[in-house]
Automatic annotation (TrEMBL):
Name listed for the protein in its UniProt record: Aspartate transaminase
Binding site for substrate: R334
Record GO biological process: glycine biosynthetic process, by transamination of glyoxylate
InterPro entries reported for this sequence: Aminotrans_V_dom (IPR000192), Aminotrans_V_PyrdxlP_BS (IPR020578), PyrdxlP-dep_Trfase (IPR015424), PyrdxlP-dep_Trfase_major (IPR015421), PyrdxlP-dep_Trfase_small (IPR015422), SP_NH2Trfase/AEP_transaminase (IPR024169)
Length: 381
């Protein structure tokens, strides 16, 4: 018998009721039955994005499709765009821009560090022509959370759109589209939204439309103008991922019932307990003070083969945590704690880390991490 536990930074665990909603009989999408579900999902997404904008688009795609849509709908060939890198996902913004002939002005941040908002002000003063600024809220590859509120303040006085990859940030860290003045934000289904992979959500503020009308990059499937027109008719231009949208109805209901502020504070508390448990084991956080509440990235002990230990843990115990990507492969491991996660998930995750290290010859005291997690959870309610 194998029972599985998913502590990866996407995909994440899915509540049973969401799976049941996804398993309902298929319906046709050009019906009022579908439109009612779709419009309710769109309304609930506005709440998650903290936006009054009527334009929240749901694409059948992974998160990256939503990112590509932001690039092709706001820019023309040869335009300049400022991109905060410092991890695989920040780099992805730059790669998408480059694929379309956009001139990227990178702001490179050391892996594991957050960008200082002043750097954006500085870059935009120098590059007055820059049309868009692309930032990642939570850089899932390093575990860093960037200060989007501060960044929005720094970008505000300039004439560029602020576009945020909130794919893992949404539903974990506060993101106030309207209050902070974010022009476009992207979310994905398989992270904090407690859904399977396959949907990208893009929230477009009124302030972005002037640029969207001018943007000349080629697009067909990703066209925001088509999406807007269809949304006005309570539908999508092409066949939507009907089952996933039915599942989203349930998942967003759960978020609304809990209350978004409570969702944020639950993540903050659980992430704090995770970090404390890791430190109690004598391990070091890769992102230090910039650690997100989405996942905890941990430096792998010196000389320890973390990847084979992770594989063994998954194969033998059914617990999945992840290693680092590309340059960080073998150097860090990552524990995802976003979405459908509670206290006992953290206890399981930390005890799995203890077992994984101990069994593979790393000198740690068994129970020390778990005991610290229990203490923290009991002392901060
Ligand atoms: C997961 C993720 C993405 C998108 O990845 P897809 O595999 O395309 O869904 C983008 N940005 C961040 C920060 C992510 O964590």
């Amino acid at each position: 018998m194998k029972k599985t536990y998913l502590f990866t930074p996407g995909p994440t665990q899915i509540p049973h009721d969401v799976t049941l909603a996804e398993a309902k009989s298929m319906i046709h999408h050009r019906t009022s039955e579908f439109s009612n579900i779709f419009i309710k999902v769109t309304e609930d997404l506005k709440y998650v994005f903290q936006s009054k904008s009527d334009e929240v688009f749901t694409f059948a795609s992974s998160g990256t499709g939503g990112m590509e849509a932001c690039v092709v709908n706001t820019l023309s060939q040869g335009d300049k765009a400022v991109v905060v890198r410092g991890g695989k996902f920040g780099e992805r913004w730059a790669e998408i821009c480059e694929a379309y002939g956009v001139d990227v002005i990178p702001i490179d941040i050391e892996y594991g560090k957050a960008v200082k908002p002043d750097l954006l002000d500085y870059a935009l003063r120098k590059e007055k022509e820059a049309r868009s600024v692309f930032v990642t809220q939570c850089e899932t590859s390093t575990g860093v959370v960037h200060d989007i509120e501060g960044i929005a303040k720094a970008v505000k006085s300039h004439n560029a759109l602020l576009i945020i990859d909130a794919i893992t940030g949404i539903g974990v860290h506060p993101l106030m589209m309207d209050d902070w003045g974010i022009d476009i934000a992207v979310a994905g289904s398989q992270k904090g939204c407690m859904l399977p992979p396959g949907l990208a959500f893009v929230c477009v503020a009124q302030s972005a439309w002037e640029s969207i009308k001018k943007a000349r990059l080629p697009k067909y499937y990703w066209d925001f103008k088509k999406m807007r027109k269809s949304l006005g008719n309570k539908t999508t231009p092409f066949t939507p991922a009907i089952s996933l949208i039915m599942a989203a109805g349930k998942a967003l209901d759960m978020i609304k019932k809990e209350g978004i502020e409570n969702v944020w504070s639950r993540h903050a508390r659980l992430a704090h307990a995770t970090r404390e448990g890791i430190k109690a084991l004598g391990l070091e956080l890769f992102a230090g003070d910039a650690s997100s509440n989405v996942l905890t990235a941990v430096k792998s002990p010196e000389g320890f083969d973390i990847n084979s230990a992770i594989k063994k843990l998954r194969d033998e115990s059914g617990v999945t945590i992840t290693g680092g990507q590309e340059e960080l492969k073998g150097k860090i491991f990552r524990i995802g704690h976003m979405g459908y996660v509670n206290e006992f998930d953290i206890i399981v995750a930390i005890s799995a880390v203890e077992k994984c290290l101990h069994e593979n010859g790393c000198k740690i005291e068994l129970g020390k991490g778990v005991s610290r997690v229990q203490e923290v959870l009991l002392s901060c309610k």
